[in-house]
């Protein structure tokens, strides 16, 4: 199998980037896409050329680090896949693949395909936590939670913070990520104490970090590896409006 890669190379956020072309031959269709980049980096190393930088960690679709755009699609051609779960059998022999970093004003390019997604961390820091008494662990059944509520909360908590929702959104909104973090805590009794302040602080931080507004096109839910539902965005909007009324009327 032969593939031609046009990969975005950029020294840093302030430098001008460009697509560089690389041809790879004798590839196995069972090779993962990140393994393809590893192979290319080995070849570049032999030639004494700088390796292509890209994010990766677990390579099991869990960590959310492999933030790439392949032929204009976040994470590649698969639906609800991460880049590390994408294999070369997803492409045809002789294909030309354009590989770029996630594009968003809030995701500054560090180098090549590697971007700074600390803006997502700042949203979590603004309210993605609960108050808890220190000391011995509480008895497991001291706070009863209905099975349906627990299951729904865990569905929202499954968000891996990959940022694909931002990359695919025409407004570079992180609304799906933000709503998942708000929703999984508001569904549980442990998250009630900071309920009002949490959503307001997290939404305000989202806007301050340069993310755009949500216009409900639904593209984010299509590319989300964990299939976070759009209903979480509706829940976040309800929580925000409710909390603003409560805070303003105090």
Uncertain residue ranges: none
Shape: elongated
State the CATH architecture of the largest domain: Orthogonal Bundle
Give the N-to-C terminal Cα separation. 66 Å
Fraction of residues in helices? Answer: 25-40%
Q: How large is the share of residues in beta strands?
A: 5-15%
Outline the secondary-structure elements:
Blueprint: E1 3-9, E2 18-24, H1 33-46, E3 68-70, E4 73-74, E5 96-101, E6 108-111, E7 114-116, H2 118-127, H3 147-157, H4 164-168, H5 175-186, H6 195-208, H7 219-223, H8 231-248
Parallel strand pairs: 1-5
Antiparallel strand pairs: 1-2, 3-4, 3-5, 6-7
Question: What does this molecule look like?
Answer:
The protein has two domains: 109 residues, Beta-grasp domain (Ubiquitin-like (UB roll)), CATH 3.10.20; 131 residues, Alpha-helical ferredoxin (Fumarate Reductase Iron-sulfur Protein, Chain B, domain 2, Orthogonal Bundle), CATH 1.10.1060. The chain has 250 residues and is an alpha+beta fold. The mean pLDDT is 94. β1 and β2 form a beta hairpin. It is 36% helix and 13% strand. The chain contains eight helices and seven strands, in the order ββαβββββααααααα.
């Amino acid at each position: 199998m032969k593939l031609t890669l046009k990969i975005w190379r950029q020294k840093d956020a302030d430098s001008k980037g460009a697509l560089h072309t690389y041809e790879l031959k004798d590839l196995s269709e069972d090779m993962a896409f990140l393994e393809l980049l590893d192979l290319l980096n080995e070849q570049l190393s032999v030639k004494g050329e700088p390796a292509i930088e890209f994010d990766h960690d677990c390579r099991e679709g869990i960590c959310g680090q492999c933030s790439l755009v392949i032929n204009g699609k976040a994470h590649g051609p698969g639906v609800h896949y991460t880049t590390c779960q994408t294999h070369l059998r997803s492409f045809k022999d002789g294909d030309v693949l354009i590989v770029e970093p996630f594009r968003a004003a809030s995701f500054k390019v560090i180098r090549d395909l590697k971007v700074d997604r600390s803006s997502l961390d700042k949203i979590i820091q603004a309210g993605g936590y609960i108050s808890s008494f220190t000391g011995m662990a509480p008895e497991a059944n001291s706070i009863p939670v209905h099975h349906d509520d627990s299951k729904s909360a865990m569905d929202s908590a499954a968000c891996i913070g990959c940022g694909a929702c931002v990359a695919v959104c025409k407004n570079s909104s992180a609304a799906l990520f933000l709503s998942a973090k708000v929703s999984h805590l508001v569904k549980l009794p442990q998250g009630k104490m900071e309920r009002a302040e949490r959503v307001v602080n997290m939404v305000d931080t989202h806007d301050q970090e340069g993310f755009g507004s949500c216009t409900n096109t639904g593209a984010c839910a299509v590319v989300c590896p964990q299939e976070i539902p759009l209903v979480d965005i509706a829940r976040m909007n309800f929580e925000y409006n409710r909390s603003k009324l409560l805070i303003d009327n105090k």
